[in-house]
Amino acid sequence: xxxxxxxxxxxxxxxxxxALEDIAPEEIExxxxxxxxxxxxxxxxxLELAMALEEKYGVTVxxxxxxxxxxxxxxxxxxxFVTEQRG
Amino acid sequence: xxxxxxxxxxxxxxxxxxxxxxDREGVRTWREFSEHAAxxxxxxxxxxxxxxxxxxxxxxxxxxxxxxxxxxxxxxxPNRQPGTVGDLAARSDGLLSDGSEEPGALHPLALSAKxxxxxxxxxxxxxxxxxxxxTGSAKEIPKTWRQLDEVxxxxxxxxxxxxxxxxxxSTAPHHHLYGLLFRVLWPLASGxxxxxxxxxxxxxxxxxxxxxPPAMLAATPAHLRRITQREELARLRxxxxxxxxxxxxxxxxxAAAVEIALGEPPVEVFGSTESGGVALxxxxxxxxxxxxxxxxxxxxxxxxxxGCLRVTSPWVSLGAEQADGQLELEMGDRVEIAANGEFRLLxxxxxxxxxxxxxVVLLDMESRLLEHGFVDEVALVxxxxxxxxxxxxxxxxSAEGRAVHEREGRRELGRxxxxxxxxxxxxxxxxxIWRVVPALPRxxxxxxxxxxxxxxxxxxxxxxxxxxxERAGDVLCxxxxxxxxxxxxxxxxxxxxVVPGVAQVGWALAAAEVLLGRPxxxxxxxxxxxxxxxxxxTSLSLEVEANPDxxxxxxxxxxxxxxxxxxxxxxxxxxx
Lengths: 87, 576
Fold this sequence. Notes:
Chain A is mainly alpha-helical. Chain A contains 4 helices and no strands. Chain A is globular.
């Protein structure tokens, strides 16, 4: 799967699993911040999203808070993380 | 190590190398803690009130006890939003923060000084917490050290099962009373080390619990629910020796999952910022939900008029003074009390709801929204989305608001109104669902029934029902039915809604993803025709086709028909 397709798939997961309204997956900017600014997700969303990614791709975030903050920064960083984890 | 009353924390020497907390720098000892507190106290001069806003619970504890040592008052903002902290800081003598860029802010760990023994005043307000009152804006809740000595009762109830080396973890923020007591003050008074850093992800938390001596966890229901969904939890059996939950109702399924994994159900704590801890209970799987048992010094009664719980205890910090000097507080929870004093909660009497573990007064948020030029009328309600409580908003727009809504859509509208609220509330409590309505759904008495609000907020289907699907070579054919309450319905006449063309293209895209076996993004549509309006409640056939030539060119064709007549058709460009 190429990176654009993966990014789109992640956007769909974000919209569906977080029950976001008024935004289509395609409208989420790949490089924009997901939390606080940008899409404006919150702490409950972060927990939910981590679970959804594990379910879909079998990837688990690690135990380093700084690293996780980088992973959850944007769709782009999440896609990179999924790609690296799946090898 | 005997448990100390908080006012006596610095009275007698404690073992200098006793672990108080640990953070990225490693273990923080009692010597470091007391010297940091004395060092900061020495910088506070004649200031009488200081705002404490820290990311680290260790720095937070240093700042609290430094202000106490300096004879000043600590203001603890209800959240860490710059707007909230800044407003308070402007009214105070200064800001004590481990991450602020404000000029003049003091870093709690900047200086150390030799800490002389001292007693802290027991009955003078040591800190002010803030909570959302039932009316008006955030309410200041003064707390004396004596009112926080609830931690001594917690120690009496649970201390024997928790050796001094037990490490204390928490997902509750230290600026709320639950986190303040369980993750900072109880560990400090009892000599157990606490985790200074706040960990957002359960993946960060569980490995840290697993390594090292046994641990206890003071969690919020939202975190606990996620924690029980991880298999690692069962491996912590015998290691995670006690789990507490507070800040909102704990689902029975979560309590049962903790019990199955760890052998013991979590201890739920019921209380509020004003009352302190009130009662405990543990839900056991296979048993009916237990009543709440008041903590030993707590007296409860039911207000005959309101049916609400009235609480008297040494920890209540606002209320009517009783003969013994203790205060009695009426809580907003309707209650049924048994002869033995145990009680059941029957729901809130006011419009205060919990989102995440944060209390939010819907009335306050409504007032704030009414200040915005887009809003004529608004009603907020708590609604469940994906297992979590969220705030939903019904808005009647002003002319200005309607113009924005028509021009930029509901998302931009919701974003503008959310931005208006954001400086004052935690992001997690901001409205998540917005509905623009022509009028609020009032009943004949002019009231807004909860059911009517929830009906307006109900998730409307965004896709048609798929009644059948057939695939033959390059063609996929779906029999569809348009729901009556499809989310995207539009039309110039309210009684004649139609399905917009863009929605039909979206349905075609979804079918084409099945046909081509990959996610697709539409890059454009060619030869698009809409021949007849498509109405809700009707059926149609949708055909998508991509022959090898189409695939090579990165496109597919679609056609919607009913009884042989074409409704719409076109070619959609996608990435090859």
